[in-house]
Prior knowledge:
By secondary structure, this protein is an alpha/beta fold. The chain has two domains: 8-110 and 151-211; 220-435, no CATH class. The protein is 58% helix and 11% strand. It is built from 19 helices and ten strands. A five-stranded parallel β-sheet has the order 3-2-1-4-5, sandwiched between helices. Strands 8-9-10 form a three-stranded antiparallel β-sheet. Strands 6-7 form a two-stranded antiparallel sheet. Strand 8 (384-387) and strand 9 (394-404) form a beta hairpin.
Amino acid sequence: MFYVGRSKLRILVDPLSVHLDASRELIHKQVALTTILQYLSGIAENKVDIEILFPEFLWDNKWKENYESFVPGDVDLYEPKKLIRIKQQKVIESDWAKQRVRETKEYLETKKAEYLKFPKITLQDPKSFIRCLENGTLLDYRDAEYIYKYGYLELIDLYFQYRCDLLLTCNRILVKEKQPLADKYRLFTTYYPEVFDKVETFLKGHNIYISTQNPIYGLDAGSFYPITDLKLRKYFQLWDTFVEIKKDPEMSEYLRVMFYHRYSFMKYSIDQIKFHLLLAERLEDEKLRFRHYFLISYHLNAFYLNVWGFLDNLAWVLNYLYGLGFTKKEPIKITFSNKEYRKKLQSIAPKVFSILEDSETKKWMENLTLKRQPAAHREPLFMSPLYDQQTMNLISEKMIAVNTKEGREIFEAVNHFNYDIEQFEKFLDKLLFLFIPNK
C-alpha cells in the first residue's frame, strides 16, 4: 500500500510455505482464502480487491506435489486478476524498487554468517540431532540454505517489483527478521493463520464484513460482531448465568447494551485502528501516514469511551444482580471507581470484589483512567510524533500526551491500546470463570 486510501491488497506467496506444510489444515486455510476471493468477485461494483502472486519459477519439481493444493489447475475460482502466476523473473525497471531491493538484500547478507551455520551434530552424541531439531537450529539452517544457496532472495525482488503488501512465508529467517524488515525496508512478512487476520482487517476497513473462521459473509457491522465474534459468544454465557440467578428487566437491558452495543462498538473501533495502522505503516511519506494517524486517534477515543461505558454498564448489572440498593437518582455512584459502591459490593459480593482488587485488574483500571478522562472531559487523545530534543531524531510517531494531576504524561498509543484489549479480555475471563468455573 503506497498511498492513502488504497483498495487493493497484494500478497506474494513463498512457494516454500506450500511445500513445507502439506497438512490438511493448510489446505483448509487455503480454501478459506480462495473462498474470500470468490466472494469478492461476486460483489457488484466492488472496488476492493485482493491479489495473490505465486512465483511458479521458484517451485522445484522435486518437491512433494502439494503445489496443486494452493493453485488447483484452471478452475473458475481463480480469476486472472485474483491469482497472478509469475512464470519467470523479469528485469526490475523502477529505480525505487531497485534501491529497496539492494538495501534489503544488503541487510540480509549481514545476517548470512549468523544463520548459515550448520548446528553441531555428532555420531558420538546421537541426541544432538534431537536437541537441534527441538531448539530450531536445524530448521534455521534449512531455511537459511533456501535463502542464501537456492536463490530465495529473489522473493525480495518480486516483493518490491510488484509492490506487494504482504509476503506470506513460513521461512524462519524471514520471520525472525520480521521487525527490522518492516521498520527499515517496509517489507512485511506474514504467516498462517495471521494472514487471515490481515485480510479480514483490510476488508473490514472497507466495510466488507467477512469471517473466515465460521465462515460468514455479507453481514453489516451491527450484526457481524454479535454473530461472529468467538469471545463475545463465550461472554454471552455470563448473560445467561446472570438471568438465571435473577430475572430483572432493568438488568437485562444493561446486559443487552453491554454486549450488543458497547462490545460491538469497541470491536468496530479495534478493527478500524488495525486497518489504518496496516495502511499507514506501508506509506513512505510521513504526511500520508499522519492522515491515517488522525483517524486512528478518532477511533482510539471511541474505543476508550466504550470500554469505560462497558464497565459502567457492568456496575449497573451487578447493582441489580446483588441488590446493592443504588437507584437511577444517584447514577454517579454506580461505577467501580466510587468508594460507596465498592464498599457495598465488597460486603455483598466479596468474590466479585476480589476480582476488582486483583493487582493486575486494579493496575489496569487505574491506567485506564489515564485515557478515558481526557477522551471524555479534556483534550481528546491525539497521536503525534515525538522527537529527541537534542538530536531531533524521531523517537516514535505514535505518542500521546495527556495532562494528569501529577503533570504531563506521555505514552505509546499502540502498545497501550494492545495492553488494554488484553486486560479487558482477562477481566471478563475472570468473571466468566467465577460464575462458570468449567469455562
